[in-house]
Amino acid sequence: QKEVEQNSGPLSVPEGAIASLNCTYSDRGSQSFFWYRQYSGKSPELIMFIYSNGDKEDGRFTAQLNKASQYVSLLIRDSQPSDSATYLCAVRGSNYKLTFGKGTLLTVNP
Amino acid sequence: GAVVSQHPSRVICKSGTSVKIECRSLDFQATTMFWYRQFPKKSLMLMATSNEGSKATYEQGVEKDKFLINHASLTLSTLTVTSAHPEDSSFYICSASEWGLAGSYEQYFGPGTRLTVT
Q: Which of A45, A49, A100 lies closest to B43 in CB terms?
């Protein structure tokens, strides 16, 4: 059973702070890793993807991958109230299917 | 680019009736489309994978005779919920995949369809 684990939160941070979201996965054969943002009542929106160990930065977002530890994280710098949403970690294996975590609810307080 | 649409966005139907949901890739040809279901405060659960011109592959526990999937073209897949019951009320989301640059294989999500069965 392939599993993707996330802390459900809620994670609450003040505006301007760094929000750190974590995810672990069970399938060592996983190849690609994604972070999606989902607002209430809406479908997921791709924020970041990462394939290789290390860090990948895109604007205020940084994804970090450590395959040895089976761990992937998302850092959001200078958090804004508009970043308040549920963040879904998704892992893709060799069959191209995505397995989602349950999501972490992030609240950024003005 | 990579826009996926779904129709309808919201539907209410009576128990025992069937509902069809359309998923379209608007600006690319989708080799594969995926159908997900999401219950309140839960994550997305993959229901089935459909490839154009072939039968869909259903995940364990998903009834293929209840959730009929047709992928007749590279831009359209449909999900029909047959004999719907209140427990089928959920948020149904499709995604479409295409091969990207450097051999990547991205999934682009539609806006979802909120189904309520009364």
A: A100
In this predicted structure, the answer to whether residue A36 has a pLDDT above a threshold of 60 is yes
- Helix, strand, or coil here: B88? helix
Distance from CA of B82 to the nearest CA of A (A): 23
Q: Does the structure show a pLDDT above 80 at A44?
A: yes
Query: pLDDT tens across A61-110, in order?
Result: 999 999 999 999 999 999 999 999 999 999 987 777 889 999 999 999 99
Q: Higher pLDDT residue, A28 or B91?
A: B91
Whether omega before A10 lies within 30 degrees of 0, making that bond cis, reads yes
The chain A residues in contact with chain B (CB within 8 A) are: 32, 36, 41-46, 49, 51, 88, 92, 96-103
Residue in B with minimal Cα distance to A49: B106
Give me the phi and psi of A78, to 5 degrees please: 50, 55
pLDDT of residue B99: 63
CA-nearest residue to A31 within chain B is B104
DSSP state of B96: E
**What pLDDT, in 10s, does the model give residues A67-79?**
999 999 999 999 9
Before B8, cis peptide (omega within 30)? Answer: yes
The DSSP-derived string for A18-70 is -EEEEEEES-TT--EEEEEEE-TTS--EEEEEE-SSEEEEETTEEEEEETTTT
Mean pLDDT of chain B: 90
